[in-house]
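re the bet — no i am not wrong, look at it urself. input seq straight from the record:
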Amino acid sequence: MRRAILRGMAALGIAAMVIAPFAGLASAQSLLDKIKNGETVRIGFSNEIPWAYPGENNEPLGFVNAMAVDILNKLGTTKVEPVVTEWGSLIPGLQAGRFDIITGGMYITPDRCRNVLFTEPLAKVTGALLVPKGNPEGLRSYNDLRDKGLTMVTGSGWTAVKNAQTAGIADNKIMQVAGAAEVLQAVKAGRAAAGVGDYFTMKAFADKDPSVEIVDPLIGRAEDGLFPAGYVGLAFPPDQQATVDAFNEVLKAYTGSDQMLESVGKYGFTKAMLRDDTKAAEICKG
């Protein structure tokens, strides 16, 4: 009996040795392999109009989603599953495997580059100030907010938080809220002198609500109290370099093409927002 048990254990050991390499290959499957195999690709985004947001039937809308879907189609798949989550949960959700790509209009920053891989920039976007109608405080920069001791409001995890800190605004004057809708409400309620966010989102609020307006801020370095331009990319887990390379290859011909401009034009994207020659690697270095 003992010899029979040992023989059985030995057989199981051999089987494990045979199975283990194949199990490792399966777990190491890249997103590019999933695309090639026709599997569903999960895209993660927050509800940020017009960047990326869900439609009535949870379909992925917004100009970043439109770009991502176009690129996925060019790579060979039309199977896309939207996963909507809060902005602050996007990178943790990607790390936890809840979705395969972040399409939520995320700015490429050195801090984020330590946790995810970005494609080359999809667009170059500036920020904007959302203020009460008439801009009663005369705001155009972080310097104005700092020097007047005013409170600004922005989204938790948005690049405006670090930019404001870099410009010298005290933490107790930087109100951080869950998302764009809360930024608007804080300004309307007078809890903040200005909301700071991307141009698209702030303009959408001003277009619909006559009690607020947007101010095109002074553009420059945050160190100088000005508003730096931001570069938006798609984000992937750190082990997906081959997939990022494939996306970047498609982007070379896709960026500025008639197909791209048709896909994103309905969301207010214009040629003026097309990326320049700045590379993601340069931005990640800081």
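see?? The radius of gyration is 23 Å. told u. also Confidence is low (pLDDT under 50) at residues 1-28. so pay up
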